[in-house]
Amino acid sequence: MEAKNVRASLGAEWFSCGWNLFKQDFGTWFIMFLLFIGIAIVLSLIPFIGTLVLSVISPALMAGFMFSASQMDQGNEIEIADLFQGFKDKSRINNLLTLGALYLGAQILLMIIIFALLGSNAMVSAGEAGEFDPQTMMTGSMMISMLLILLVALIIAMAFLYATPLVMLDNMKPVESVKASFSACLQNILPLLVFGIIYLLLAIIAAIPIFLGFLILLPVSILALYCSYKSIFH
Q1: Full-model pTM
Q2: pLDDT (tens digit, 9 = 90+) per residue, 154-204?
Q3: Which terminus of the chain is less hemmed in, N or C, by CB atoms within 10 Å?
C-alpha cells in the first residue's frame, strides 16, 4: 500500500476530524478509553512481566480504537466491546501480537542505546570530575548522545505510528506495516509536524485543570490518528 503526500494544513484538520468522531458517541469513547487506561495501570503494577505484556498487547488494544473509528466513519454504531475487536479477530490477532513483540524489541533496543550512550558518558564525566556532577555531565559528547537517542526514538515512533491501523484495517503483515508507516511519516513530515505542534498546545491547555483535560485530549488524539491514517493511505 502506497502512502500519499498530503498538505500540511491537514495536520490541523485531523484534530477536527477526531473531535467530530468523538462527539458522535463521547460516552462510549470515554468508557473505552478509561478501560484501556485501567488495563494499562493494572498491568503496570505487575513487576516486570506486566510491562512486557502491556507492550505486546498494546497494538491489539489500539486496534480496537482503529476498528471502532472505521465503523463510525462508515456510519455504523460502536460499542464498548469493540475495544477488544483485535483479540476477537482470529485473522489478525497473531499479526497484532507480533507487532507488539516488534514494538517491545524496539523499546528494549532504545533502552540499551540509552544505557550504552548516557551510561558511558556519565562514567567518563564522573571519572574526570571525581563525582557525578550534572553540569560536568552536560559535555559536548553527552549532548551528541542525547541527540542520537532522540533520533532513534523518533525513528521508532515513525515506524509504529501507522503500523496498527495498517495491520487491523488493511490486513498488512507486521514487518510490512512498520516499513509502510515509516515511509508514510517521511513523506508527510510537514503535516505531522503541524499535528505535533497542535497537540503540544492542546496538551498545555489540558494540563491546566489538574491534567483532567487529557481525559478528552487523548481519546480525541487517537481518533485524529485514525483520520490521519485515512488521509495518507486512502
Answers
A1: 0.88
A2: 999 999 999 999 999 999 999 999 999 999 999 999 999 999 999 999 999
A3: C
pLDDT at 130 over 70: no
pLDDT computed for residue 145 by the predictor: 83
Query: Count of CB atoms within 10 A of residue 182's CB?
Result: 20
Calpha distance 130→5 (Å, rounded): 53
Decide if 201 contacts 209 (C-beta within 8 A). no
Residue at grid coordinates 468522531:
21
Which alpha helices (DSSP H) does 77-139 contain, by range?
85-88, 93-114, 120-129, 134-137
Q: Return the SS3 of 3.
A: coil
The x, y and z cell numbers of residue 52, run together, are 512486557
Q: How far is CA 216 from CA 144, 221, 225, in A?
A: 37, 9, 14
Using a CB cutoff of 8 Å and minimum separation of 24, what contacts does 216-219 make?
216/22, 218/33, 219/22, 219/29, 219/30, 219/32, 219/33, 219/65
- Which amino acid, 180? A
Of 76, 97, 67, nearest in space to 229 by CA: 67
Distance CA 82, CA 71 (A): 10
Name the residue with cell 487523548: 218
